[in-house]
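Page 42, continued from yesterday. The earlier attempt failed because a stray header line got pasted into the input along with the sequence. Redoing it now with the clean sequence only.
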Amino acid sequence: MSAPAVFPGGSELFRLSAGVAHLNHGSFGAVPVPVARVHRSIAEEAAVDPDRFFLGVPDRLAEARGRIAARLGADPEGAALVTNATEAAGLALDALRLAPDDEVLVTDHGYGTVVAAAARRARVVTVPLGPDLPDEEAVRKAVLAGLTPRTRVALLDHISSPTARFIATPALLADLAERGVTTVVDGAHAPGMLADPLAGAPDFWFGNLHKWGYAPPGSAVLAVATAHRERVPAPVPSWEDDRGFPRSVEYRATADYTGLLAAPEGLDLIESLGADRVRAHNSALAAYGAELLAGLPGLTPLPADERLAMRALRLPRGLARTPAEAASLREEIAARLGFRVLIWAWPGGGGIRVCGQIYNTPGEYERLATALRPLLDGR
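This time it went through. Structure tokens are written below.
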């Protein structure tokens, strides 16, 4: 494919170091300058008059939640602002009051701390999904085949973090609901990347706003179906307990709310840039990078979806077999080559994930492909 055009003004919206090519937006995101400016101004409010700031936080959180819900297509009365996907997973699972012998189905593509949240509360059954499964239908069949009579909950990635695969599709969610299985969807990568992040109407859905949603770190949202809202516990006793969900979940007295209050600015910025345009650009850029990397000996692209701004490839066998090996290779690529990418571990050999964002340029992926070849040849 030909190189995508550079997004006009994209790089100027961020303050990323010019000494490193940041091709890993999916891990921690990056905060655009206009959003950071609003964030700082809110922090200044808290600094100059703490009493006024904190007394007004509950209502301001509700206002921010309404703006975010409108962008995501969520019910503002059925969504709560939280700090990250892992916290949201714990809240969702606690609402279900699982017994120790209840089974929570997960897949081996699941995010580590989210799966750990389930393991703290119930018996976890892991369904293996080969990274090379050809399409969403193959994933759907594998998940359904993993159900047992004890399966009470399916905790599934909307988009898997390491392998950039759609898992919790509307078709799969409908199948699980039909079988009486409660669905909890980890949509960490969905806000800002997908046009309809809550498609399929899961029982619980949560997504990070600080990745593709351009929000400050520590910004996420938990959306809950009507039938479950009254059972979502506040993580700590709250002065908003009498108001119930979502206010009792959001307000925790003296905490740092500044990122959550600035979070709507990120989604608004995407809309002002043209959300469809941003999504199409980022996906095309990730696809271009994956195509270049696929030309290297031993790198094999995994099945991909054109809607996603992430692409994953398998590394040569024997590389990144464990988390420690993956982390070592990731840091070597950053230190020696000057690129930030995700290296993910897998038994027998892991993979590499690259992302596309409006601050990236085609030349960065071209340089990565050139620089990576001798490093891999030396393994």
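Notes: The radius of gyration is 21 Å.
Reminder to self: strip header lines before submitting.
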